[in-house]
Amino acid sequence: MLERVVSARRTASHSDEDDDSVLGTDESKTKRQNLYLLASNYLSRFSHFCCQCTAPTACLVLCLVLVFVSVASLFVHSRNFVCISPFDPKTRVGFFGLDGLESDFGSLGVPWCRSKYGKTVEWTSKDLIKGLEEFVPIYETRPIKNNMYGMGFDHSFGLWFIARWLKPDLMIESGAFKGHSTWVLRQAMPDTPIVSLSPRHPEKYLKKGPAYVDGNCTYFAGKDFVDFGSVNWNAVMRKHGITDLSRVLIFFDDHQNELKRVKQALHAGFQHLVFEDNYDTGTGDHYSLRQICDQSYIRGGGHSCFVDSDEARIRLKRKIFWEKAVDIDGLCGPNEAWWGVRGWMRDNFNHSNKPISYEEHFQNSRFVESILDVYWELPPAAGPSLTHQTRYDPARAVSPIVEDGRYGLFQRLGLGRLETSVFNGYTQMVYLQISQPGS
Ligand SMILES: C[S@@+](CC[C@H](N)C(=O)[O-])C[C@H]1O[C@@H](n2cnc3c(N)ncnc32)[C@H](O)[C@@H]1O
């Protein structure tokens, strides 16, 4: 699996112009400027300029012109402010424009974990699009149709795609719930053994409704449950005839502190990890990779708790439209602690939290950078104007595989057949490749 990881790209490689060659031409891609945002940006910049101005007459004329242009733009777009739910996709598109759905944080950026040598994955947006075409009909046959509290479409696709690409000899999952993720792993690799750790055995859910129990899976569940950090992995590997740990894929969906899980996996010698919930700073019930790497020295990382900052204004605006977006009040705890969740390192479904100092948070990222070979965030399957998802702010995610406006491609891939709710669970699933520091 190691050789597959070859090239260095920051974004999720969706820039290929020839995606359409995979599935025919998509004529529907449209991009338009959002005059309201432009006007308000200029207004805020020039109000600053007007206040500082030293040539009063010229400045007054210039400022009046700018105010007129901004007010006219607001008037033209005022139909967007009538009584429509802010979570209505059309309203969001009207307010932000297609670009605006994802670009507000452009100047601020979104933090990213640096890997040791800048490597990333070798799969491209074309591979992801081909994968989507193949996966949608598989997903439609899932046994657990309503997987509330478990994975939705985006992460199911991500896990399936990664497992199928890496072709591991053994797959380990921590956090099975009713067994949907076990089913996804099985679809990716029909004959590969699975080890599943979960306090409650998925078979228990069968009494109440749909669940999935796999015939080629060793369950450490129910009375046999052992936490990932306490398993004798040498013995498990021996039992499965695994001698090369680079042939094992670990999937974590157990809502534990990801720093703890990364250290445990590294200690056991595992290299390929997927974390289902890679929560953004200020959100979620456990300390995540995304949070760890949110550092002032990373572009887009580090935050200001100043209420009159650009970030505060952007966050306030985004929160109107995206249920999970976080404003400055949600981001910052006492003493302006913004890291983790308001200065806390959360663990175990938010049941076991501890405040951490900024210094400790900083050291955590340095440690993670010292062991990271690859950090790749799964892009959302499609943009919000297509999926009509209303929860996560697309500005805090990498560009979607099927970008906003590509309605034809969205339909051809079969994504239009899925219910909207299956697109609501995206939380930046991440694939990591790790190795000991210095190696
Ligand atoms: C979000 S659910 C998993 C959803 C599942 N992967 C899916 O996609 O349907 C989290 C699961 O983690 C389990 N869990 C709680 N503590 C755990 C631990 N220490 N190790 C493994 N699983 C744990 C919970 O019981 C629950 O079943």
Architecture overview:
With 439 residues, the chain is an alpha/beta fold. It has 16 helices and 9 strands. Strands 3-2-1-4-5-9-8 form a 7-stranded mixed sheet, sandwiched between helices. It has a two-stranded antiparallel ribbon with strand order 6-7. Residues 1-54 and 69-89 have low confidence and may be disordered. It binds S-adenosylmethionine. S-adenosylmethionine is lined by residues 147, 149-151, 174-178, 180-181, 197-200, 227-228, 253-256.
Anisotropy-based shape:
globular
CA-CA gap between termini: 17 Å
- Count of strand segments: 9
The largest beta-sheet arranges its strands as 3-2-1-4-5-9-8
Low-confidence stretches: 1-54, 69-89
**Measured on Cα atoms, how large is the radius of gyration?**
23 Å
Largest sheet: 7 strands, mixed
Query: Looking at the chains present, what oligomeric state does this protein adopt?
Result: single chain
**Secondary-structure content class:** alpha/beta
Counted by DSSP, the helix tally is 16
What ligands can be seen in this structure?
S-adenosylmethionine
